Amino acid sequence: MAFEAEERPDRPIAKFESMLKTDDVYFFDAEDFEDIIHHYLNNGKMSLAKKAIKIGLTQHPSTIELKLLEVEVHVFENNLELAESMLDSLQTIDSNNEEIYIQRANIFSKKDDHNKAIQLLEKALTLSDDSIDIHSLLGMEHLFMDNFEEAKKHFIQCVLFDEHDYASLYNIIYCFDFLEDFDGAIVFLNDYLEKNPYCEVAWHQLGKQYIEKGMYKEAIAAFDFAIISDDSFVGAYFEKGKILEKLKRYNEAIENYEITIEIEDPSAFAYLRIGKCHEKIGNTELARLFYYKTVHEDPLLDKGWLAITSFYIKQEDYVKAKEYITKAINIEEENLFYWEKSALIHEALGLVEDAEVAYQKMVDLGDCELKTWLNWSTLVIKKGDLHSAIQILQQALEFYPNNADILYKIAGSHMALNQTIKTKEYLVKALSVNTKKVATFKLDFPQFKNNTWINNIIIEYSNSSK
Q1: Is 3 helix (H, G, I), strand (E, B) or coil?
Q2: How far apart are CA 55 and CA 61, in angstroms?
Q3: Domain assignment of residue 449, yes or no
Q4: Whole-angstrom Cα distance, residue 340 to residue 302?
Q5: How far apart are CA 158 and CA 153, in angstroms?
Q6: Residue 455 included in any domain
Q7: What is the domain-level CATH number for residue 387?
Q8: Angstrom distance (rounded) from CA 197 to CA 190
């Protein structure tokens, strides 16, 4: 038995959900079904949206708006062929319905044909009296294609229509940032704030633009206005704290970071920044305390482990540094920065084999920095394993084929092995790249500083190159 809507005075959504729990069938008008379906779609309740569409089309089988919502669900679920077929049928009935073009644009967007999607959305724009959602979609399509100027224009239209559309406001600033047009962003935000002087989001974004320009005084003022607009706006306190750190006003920075902890649950980032500030002003015990809090709050934050490890390295307490970098590696073994610290610590402790393991791991993780190869080979040369040092340096040559530092080290290693032919080959190559680094070569291999044969090669090369 069907009931008229007037007999069920509850709101449509509550009434619809009540109906689903009973065997009763309530009647809704088509607009009620649209509201119900939009509610479920906006809240991610796809199964309920589909039920509402099914019942809605049973009661109103010829309503195009409900059929278009069914198309929207099919597009969302990637049933693109079915959605296109339904749109073909609907277009024969109502060829000037902007929603048909919007859904076709969504289909082409899913197929990564953003140019076609834009064409269809621009057609929809000519047919629609309510164009803001279309401008938002056009902005996103242009973003997909890195057309930041065009994207910005469409998002600006959205903000002109609804000054509280912060998603579009963020997208506008995103476009300015990618265009590196910080001056343009500052002008836009100041104009916006003339009309919306208590918008904490805009003040916050303005402050970040001033940071990019190195205008720290203006940035602090902007973040202060953001805080005046909303004294619980954590982001403004964080950004202000970071600038105060740059200006070496560490105590003020600490105050701002501490406010964020009072407003929200403590964050590892706040603890980390407070620890850094205390370390800068010489409060070593407080710095250590806040570094401990950092890694306790978020054991996966690599900057926390690196900070506490670096703290002990600066204190030359390599035993403690080793303890913490080992804990960090146990949590995240594939972190390159951890292994870099591990190599330094183990080398300082004279644990050569452990340091070698760390260097090998760094290379395995993709570290191809010149200093890594040079530090690793120096360690191995000191150990006396010259054959391994040459192998390491040969690998380095694949990345830096004409690097004098590498070539001199290979030459010195071959000389230490009494391999004169190879020594001369690499020494001449090194000299051809940079003769000034001979002094460094003699420091690295002091046993050859006064070697007559080596000096003769250097003299011979110098004469021949004149």
Answers
A1: strand
A2: 9
A3: yes
A4: 13
A5: 9
A6: yes
A7: 1.25.40.10
A8: 9
- Give the three-class secondary structure for 466: coil
Per the CB < 8 A criterion, the answer to whether 361 and 353 are in contact is: no
Measured between alpha carbons, how far is 383 from 401 in angstroms, rounded to an integer?
A: 25
Give the phi and the psi of residue 2 in degrees, each rounded to 5: -95, 140
**Can you say how many angstroms the Cα of residue 405 is from the centroid of all Cα atoms in its chain?**
35
Look at residue 378 and tell me if it is in a domain: yes
Burial category of 393 from C-beta neighbours within 10 Å (exposed 0-12, middle 13-18, buried 19 and up): buried
Dist. CA 215–CA 222, nearest whole Å: 11
Whether 348 is in a domain gets the answer: no
Instruction: Give the integer Cα–Cα distance in Å for 309 and 280.
Output: 16
Against a cut of 0.90, is the pTM above it? no
Number of domains present in the structure of the chain:
1
Chain-centroid distance, C-alpha 95? 43
**Type of residue at 77:** E
Residues 372 and 343: their CA atoms lie apart, in Å, by: 10
User: What residues contact residue 7 under an 8 Å CB cut-off, 6+ apart?
Assistant: none
- One DSSP character per residue, 17-32 reads HHHHTSS-EE---HHH
Q: For residues 457 and 428, give the distance between their C-alpha atoms in angstroms, rounded to a whole number.
A: 8
Residue-number span of the structural domain to which 424 is assigned = 368-466
- Assigned token pair, 193: 């704030």
- The tens-digit pLDDT sequence of the chain (466 residues) is 344 444 443 488 888 888 888 877 788 888 888 888 888 888 888 888 888 888 888 889 888 888 888 888 888 888 888 988 888 888 888 888 888 889 899 899 999 999 999 999 999 998 888 789 999 999 999 999 999 999 999 999 999 999 999 999 999 999 999 999 999 999 999 999 999 999 999 999 999 999 999 999 999 999 999 999 999 999 999 999 999 999 999 999 999 999 999 999 889 999 999 999 999 999 999 999 999 999 999 998 999 999 999 999 999 999 999 999 999 999 999 999 999 999 999 999 999 999 999 999 999 999 999 999 999 999 999 999 999 999 999 999 999 998 999 999 999 999 999 898 998 899 889 888 888 888 888 888 888 877 888 878 887 777 776 5
